[in-house]
Write a structure and sequence with these properties.
This protein has seven helices and 14 strands. It is an alpha+beta fold and about 300 residues long. Helix 1 runs antiparallel to helix 2. It is globular. The structure holds L-MYO-inositol-1-phosphate. The site of L-MYO-inositol-1-phosphate has 13 residues, from strand 4. It comes from Chaetomium strumarium. Belongs to the inositol monophosphatase superfamily.
C-alpha cells in the first residue's frame, strides 16, 4: 500500500463531513430542485451536487495528488477506480430519505488505496451521528458529534465498534435469529430484480416452506448506514446488489475495523471487488460468520446478480 498518512486523511474527512452536514441540514427538501437519473426512483437533488462540489474542492486542495470519484460526477463506463489513493464519495447516501425528511441520510467519505478501503467517515447530520474507521486503527461511533466543532459543548465520548466490544462479540446463530438488512435499490425490472424479490420472499418464509425464517428484515435506505449498523453490531447481515463503490467504500472500512466481513452478494465468492456492485456484509462475531454467509447463499440458490459498471 502506498505510504499515505491515514490519520491526516481521517481528520480532514471528519472536518469535511461536518461542513457537508451543515449544508444538508440547511437545505429544505420540500423546495429544492430534484432530478432523476436512471429512472423515477433514482434521484439527485441540487444539494447532492452542491455537497459534492464542496467536498471535491476541499479534498483536491488538501490532497492534490489523490484521485477523486464521486457519485454525481461519475461517468458510466469511463470513471475507473485505480490502485492510486482515491477518495470515493457519496455526497448524500439515502437521497430518497433526504427528500422525504426521513432522518436516515448521510455523507459517505472513503479513501481507498490499492482499491482497498483504508479510511471511512460516515456522518448522519440528522442524528448528529458519526462513524469513522482507519485501517489497522479500529472503528468508532460518536453521538452529538458536531457539538464540539460548533462550539456548543462536548460530543459524547467516541465508542469503539462493535458496541459490545471487539474482544468477544456475540456469536452469530442461523438466519432465524438474525436481523437482516436488504434494499430494493433503483432497478425495478429484469433478472436482478426478480432474484431479489424471490430471495426476500424466501428469507421471510418459514423453514418448512424452504425459507430462512429470518428474525427480521429492515431497509435503512442507505448502504453506508447499513454497513455502519453492521459494524456497530445492530444488524447481523446486509445484502445488496446494484449500489456502487461510493455507497460502500467508507462503510466497508468501518465494518472491517469492527471485525465484520464483506463477501459477495453472489453465492460462492468470498472475495468481492469494491466496484462489484454485489455485497454481503456480516457483523463481527466470535463465531458463525462463515456459516451465516453460506446459509444466506443457500437461500439465494443458483441465481446471480449482474450489474454494469
Ligand atoms: C442509495 C443506496 C441504497 C440503494 C439505493 C441508492 P443514494 O444511494 O445507498 O443502498 O438501495 O438505491 O442507490 O442514491 O441515496 O446515494
Amino acid at each position: 500500500m502506498a505510504s499515505v498518512n491515514l490519520q491526516q486523511v481521517h481528520d480532514t474527512l471528519v472536518s469535511v463531513a461536518f461542513e457537508a452536514g451543515r449544508m444538508i441540514l440547511a437545505a429544505n427538501p420540500s423546495s429544492i430542485s430534484t432530478d432523476t437519473k436512471l429512472n423515477a426512483v433514482d434521484i439527485v437533488t441540487e444539494t447532492d451536487q452542491a455537497v459534492e462540489r464542496m467536498v471535491s474542492t476541499r479534498l483536491r486542495a488538501a490532497f492534490p495528488t489523490f484521485a477523486f470519484v464521486g457519485e454525481e460526477t461519475y461517468q458510466a463506463g469511463v470513471t475507473r477506480i485505480t490502485d492510486a489513493p482515491t477518495f470515493v464519495v457519496d455526497p448524500i447516501d439515502g437521497t430518497t430519505n433526504f427528500v422525504h425528511s426521513f432522518p436516515n441520510a448521510c455523507i459517505s467519505l472513503g479513501l481507498v488505496v490499492d482499491r482497498v478501503p483504508a479510511v471511512g467517515v460516515v456522518y448522519n447530520p440528522f442524528q448528529d451521528l458519526l462513524f469513522t474507521g482507519v485501517k489497522g486503527k479500529g472503528a468508532f461511533m460518536q453521538r452529538n458529534a458536531s457539538l464540539e466543532v460548533e462550539g456548543k459543548g462536548r460530543g459524547e465520548k467516541k465508542v469503539r465498534l462493535p458496541l459490545g466490544g471487539l474482544a468477544n462479540p456475540p456469536p452469530l446463530g442461523d438466519l432465524s435469529s438474525a436481523l437482516v438488512s436488504i434494499e430494493w435499490g433503483s432497478q425495478r425490472d429484469g433478472e436482478n430484480f426478480e432474484l431479489k424479490a424471490r430471495t426476500f420472499r424466501k428469507l421471510a418464509a418459514s423453514k418448512e416452506n424452504g425459507g430462512g425464517m429470518v428474525g427480521g428484515m429492515r431497509s435503512l435506505g442507505s448502504a453506508a448506514l447499513n454497513l455502519c449498523a453492521c459494524a456497530a453490531g445492530q444488524l447481523d447481515i446486509y445484502w445488496e446488489g446494484g449500489c456502487y463503490a461510493w455507497d460502500v467504500a467508507a462503510g466497508w472500512c468501518i465494518l472491517n475495523e469492527a471485525g465484520g466481513m464483506m463477501a459477495s452478494g453472489n453465492p460462492g465468492e468470498w472475495e468481492t471487488e469494491l466496484d462489484s456492485r454485489v455485497y454481503l456484509a456480516v457483523r463481527g462475531a466470535s463465531r458463525g460468520q462463515k456459516e451465516i454467509v453460506e446459509e444466506f447463499w443457500r437461500v439465494i440458490g443458483d441465481g446471480r446478480m449482474e450489474y454494469k459498471h
